[in-house]
């Protein structure tokens, strides 16, 4: 945990923003896999972690602004629980570390909220995503599940606060990236023909676990990099394949890293692979170099798309004017997703609070309909203190080729004849994480090899 004053200061700032009523932040529960006592690994809710820092299930934090009280609701272990789990730090002591001196049994939360409701005081809560917490809130607030109305004021205040990272949070993210970088180097060193994708995942998971880190998200380690969030891991690596490794570690305190590298199973890239890799790399560096406070990330996304189009045109896969191609969304044949997203306690930071609130403004809302832009999670002006990913890619998706070709879609910009020849190419992504500064950006974590030469150097050594 950070110091107790960290959590106290964060709550004080939140109280100033909300001004009136009761804020209730539910912690997460241990979700059952196949029966109640066989559970998925516990992961605390990130907003709860931000304001209270306590890593325990079945607790809630309450901030009563009007009565100036802060309370952790939860139950100390009774003798039955002690028999099974052993003695642990008490909830009282954990709460003191979060700067909260008052704890009450969990069942008291219902009375507290009923009373606040009776007195017509606003009860602010965030959008619940765990089913248990949805049902709990429905019961606590005596509202049908479909009528739970999260507090927009609270969402906006939390997003405002969590978006600007404190120096100690940057240190955590850099810790996550230190381990993430080492995971990537390890993967590049040990991958060899005949190995299964899941063997590589297991090796990097062990590397992280040996330092008490977990994965920040299910890794994408695949020879089918064109499948954006591929979770199938049973393919074998063959000479000539590209391995796309999108994996990141999470620190014990919950901060994420999110890196992607793409490397050949063979010692070297083929000419085709090298050409498209360098197109993605140029798009990456062009986008990265635009970043500073005040620049709109949607413009950076569109610049990355334009650079991709120019590179794909040089290779012969696209044609025509690059700006017109991007304006017509023709690049989404190759780049179907967004350039990046905020990152912090969540790999897609605060996505549970709503992309519109995290990545957009009321003046420029998210485009929810246009293929490509609807997957851009961040489309607003950058501010110093934001942490985000930059992750352009080229993904050649056979089904998409067939669909667009049949519709003759964007045929003035896409060379479908040559594209047929690339239909089994797979995908390439390059992803790093950055801190936005007033006049630029800072790469977070150690530099991880990125050029064709650097990657081939490692592959040659490991296969020799
Ligand atoms: N790791 C998922 C992503 O890059 O968004
Ligand atoms: Mn990623
Ligand atoms: Mn990412």
From TrEMBL:
Q: Which domain of life is it from?
A: Bacteria
Which reactions does this protein catalyse? Release of any N-terminal amino acid, including proline, that is linked to proline, even from a dipeptide or tripeptide
Q: Which GO terms describe its molecular function?
A: manganese ion binding; metalloaminopeptidase activity
Enzyme Commission number, as recorded: 3.4.11.9
Q: Which UniProt keywords apply?
A: Aminopeptidase, Hydrolase, Manganese, Metal-binding, Protease
Q: Which GO terms describe its biological process?
A: proteolysis
* One cellular component (GO) term of this entry: cytosol
Keyword rRNA processing applies: no
Cofactor(s) named in the record: Mn(2+)
Instruction: Please tell me which top-level EC class this enzyme sits in.
Output: hydrolase
The record ties this protein, via InterPro entries, to: Aminopep_P_N, Creatin/AminoP/Spt16_N, Creatinase/aminopeptidase-like, Pept_M24, X-Pro_dipept-like
Does the record bear Secreted in its keywords?
no
> Taking every annotated instance into account, which residue ranges of this chain make up the domain Aminopeptidase P N-terminal?
2-134
Which family is this sequence assigned to? Belongs to the peptidase M24B family.
Q: What is this protein called?
A: Xaa-Pro aminopeptidase
- Which gene name belongs to this protein? pepP
